[in-house]
Amino acid sequence: MEQRKVSAAGTQVRPRGRKVKILATVGPASSSPDMLKKLFMEGADAFRVNMSHGDHATHAKTIAAIRDLEEEFGRPIAILADLQGPKLRVGTFKDGKAVIRHSGHFTLDRNPEPGDETRVELPHPELFGILEKGQRLLINDGKIRLKVIRADADAILCSAEVGGVISDRKGVNVPDVEVPIPALTNKDRKDLSFAVEHGADWIGLSFVQRPEDLAEARKLMGGYGALCAKIEKPMAVNRLDELLELADGLMVARGDLGVELEPYEVPPLQKRIVNAARTAGKPVIVATQMLESMIENPTPTRAEVSDVANAVYDGADAVMLSAESAAGEWPVESVVMMDRIAGQVERDEDYKARVRFLETTPDATTSDALAHACMTIADTVPISAITVFTSSGSTARRVSRERPDTPVLVLTPSDRTARRVALLWGAHAVATKDIGSFEEMIAKGKRMALRHGFGQAGSKLIALAGVPFGTPGATNLLHVVTLRGNELEEHEG
Question: Kind of pairing, strands 164-167 and 97-100?
């Protein structure tokens, strides 16, 4: 397992000046070290490695290039390895394609012979026998819509609500039933092993339907990395609370979610998923088609800008670029645009009230009470930063959940924690040496705040930590200090 350290001696990057994070997908348009550097410098806080495309050798080079960026800039960067998941597909056709007649009949069967305009193989035996009359089958991202007339152990007879051209191995979505297949395929298991071995910080699990899917992934991860459940099936939405118990974070994967549901059902579900994750104090990513037109155009549509802005107003921890940064013609411009949209929203005088519209009631613990107190103090007294000392990142998540108006400076001795926190709303993570005493904590908090641009002489700083130091979950100390301008020079001298 790769354990490269985050260098503290790199070129310092000033705080982004925004709370929401930008997750950029890496692909052919962005995998070179030079392009990755440009995306990082223009605002990408984390990178998504899509295991559905490319090979392990290519992904290994990408991960190494991102770690080189960490060393150059002294900043932790989160890497999310996104697993492909089980993809249901039809078989092949005699001529490579066929036309399904609108309102006509079409059969999906277990016959491996090439199909035609009346039938095609469905090479997924687990689907036969579970489908019932009236349930839907959506093919090619919902462009073809079939409704089941009759289903037995060998064939599924359907009526075409929406017909059209169907070609070899097009994807199939089954929105009305829980499909009895695991979320991890053999390919996913190999990809997960690779991701853990190469130090990916987050694992994105696709097509989650049930808590057992997360349990299997967690076991294979062996305690390394954080698990992000991608919510893209109606069955996952129905069991959202159970999934949140086992996941470290959520992704609103609007691609397949928008295929299996009516388009107008997705926006309220997006808000529901974001609110559920925020209430649980776990990071949530809004993904897919955020700036889709920028794959080909240097500017987005007004609707896309509003889409990104709404996710920021809702308090999502991160917004994601997919093909825009992976394969588009304007990868840098798409990051710049997303950065500017987020910055403009967060400068809105109504932003704080909107992002706190969701009430996140603290749990009955000392840690939660102190995290809530940080926000209250920062709302009452001018505070330049809330400095959080944490080994596991749980204290940082508690503070971030409150959505304070003040930046959160997260100091941790763990590189793994610093990288995971890089996806957290409002957090500026720094990997630094551990502390052993109260005095050392205060001195280090002041130095790091000055060094990273959080305040100046006379600024006030909140320090939040747990005593004894290094004990996860023991947050029990809150202290307000005033910065002196010569403290950094005294230490460095």
Answer: antiparallel
